[in-house]
Design goal:
With 367 residues, this protein is mainly alpha-helical. 64% of the residues lie in helices and 6% in strands. It is built from 8 helices and 3 strands. It has helices at 41-54, 77-96, 106-111, 117-132, 142-168, 172-203, 219-270, 299-366, and strands at 6-14, 22-29, 34-39. The protein has a 3-stranded antiparallel sheet with strand order 1-2-3. A hairpin with a 7-residue loop joins strand 1 and strand 2 (22-29). Helix 4 (117-132) runs parallel beside helix 5 (142-168), helix 5 packs antiparallel against helix 6 and helix 5 (142-168) runs parallel beside helix 7 (219-270). The termini are far apart. Mean pLDDT is 81; it is low at 206-215.
Length: 367
């Protein structure tokens, strides 16, 4: 049994044609994707007539809102809102009614751009098989192809997360588990890529159409999907190379560690020491580093001497700080004296210029 989509009409808009009309934006939420359709009121009336004819003349469980001949929804926001709610209730009632003969008709599913019920179960099984890595059937439905590609991106993301966790793990057991998880995701990704590639080859041939809508994919869309598959294939190969490099590095590190341990045991055996004996850390005072002041003291005396030396150093630092403060004060006074001397020199320059001017005037008068 296929899951029913969640249908709603959250908003409306107005067309930009010379004769404007109201567009109802239908949102469909599926388990793997969400998309929006745009329909006008005449599309709903056509759907209602086809549903009635395909259900042997029985009317759907909900009725359409009546058509207004005197007021337009483009000029009346209240009418547009009431019609939006009524059309939303119309679709939701058909979608949730216990009697499924209306929602399973080709007209209703084509109206919502959903695959037909005859092929929907096969697409669901294909996706589940791709998730389990057991499907080798090419994906020939354009909508299901996009669902598989979305699952492929999720699988590659899971592999990348597993490799990142492996790189951050410290224990060999955790690294092995992360490597197995990444390898499993990469195998599934390889199977999905092969199915997607084969599906594109089938979709590009004249023998297959475009799935539920009966339309063939254009050349531009086919090129875009080929680029998606090629990008995913390169990402998968890069992750596989990264996994192989991590495994090789772990093996090399283990070999180096074993060789280092073996060399250490050989050196200890050659020196006559027991390789399994634990070396006790040195405790107590080191005799080779004693001075004349500490040699005659016990541990308590050495501690007291250390405190005394630290106190003397603190006093020396205080004296040095006072000397630096005095030097700073002297430097500030010298700076002030230099400023005064500079001002006096400026005044002297002005007096010299003034006297020089008077002497020039006197020389001119003498001449």
């Amino acid at each position: 049994m296929t899951s029913r989509p969640e249908i709603s009409i959250p908003t409306t808009s107005t067309s930009s044609t010379p004769k404007p009309y109201t567009i109802y934006n239908i949102t469909l939420r599926l388990p793997l994707r969400t998309f929006t359709l745009q329909k006008r009121y005449s599309d709903f009336t056509t759907l209602h007539k086809i549903l009635t004819s395909q259900a042997n003349g029985a009317s759907p469980p909900a009725s359409l809102p009546p058509k207004s001949y005197f007021t337009s929804t483009t000029s009346s926001p209240a009418l547009a809102e009431s019609r939006r709610l009524a059309l939303q209730a119309y679709l939701q009632t058909i979608n949730t009614d216990p009697d499924d003969r209306w929602r399973n008709t080709p007209a209703f599913r084509s109206f919502l751009n959903l695959p037909s019920t005859s092929s929907n179960g096969r697409h669901t099984n294909d996706i589940r098989s791709a998730i389990n890595g057991a499907s080798s059937r090419p994906i020939t439905d354009p909508v299901a192809w996009l669902d598989h590609h979305r699952h492929l991106k999720t699988t590659l993301h899971s592999a990348r997360l597993a490799l990142t966790k492996r790189d951050q793990s410290a224990s060999p057991q955790s690294q092995h588990e992360c490597s197995a998880s990444a390898k499993k995701s990469l195998v599934q990704a390889g199977q999905i890529i092969a199915n997607l590639d084969q599906g594109l080859k089938t979709l590009s041939s004249d023998a297959w159409g475009g799935g539920g809508g009966g339309e063939k994919l254009g050349d531009g869309e086919l090129r875009r999907r080929r680029d998606l598959v090629e990008s995913a294939r390169k990402e998968k190969e890069g992750l596989e190379n990264l996994l192989n490099a991590m495994v090789a590095k772990s093996s090399l590190d283990a070999t180096i560690a074993q060789a280092s341990a073996a060399s250490k045991e050989k050196l200890l055996a050659a020196s006559g020491e027991d390789p399994n004996a634990r070396r006790k850390p040195a405790t107590g005072r080191v005799l080779g580093k004693e001075t004349d002041r500490t040699r005659a003291l016990d541990n308590q005396g050495v501690l007291q001497l250390q405190k005394q030396l630290m106190q003397e150093q603190d006093e020396d630092v205080d004296v040095l700080a006072q000397a630096v403060a005095r030097q700073r004060k002297i430097a500030e006074e010298i700076q002030e004296e230099l400023v005064v001397q500079k001002d006096l020199l400026g005044l002297l320059d002005e007096d010299v210029d003034r006297v020089q001017g008077k002497m020039d005037v006197a020389k001119k008068r003498i001449q």
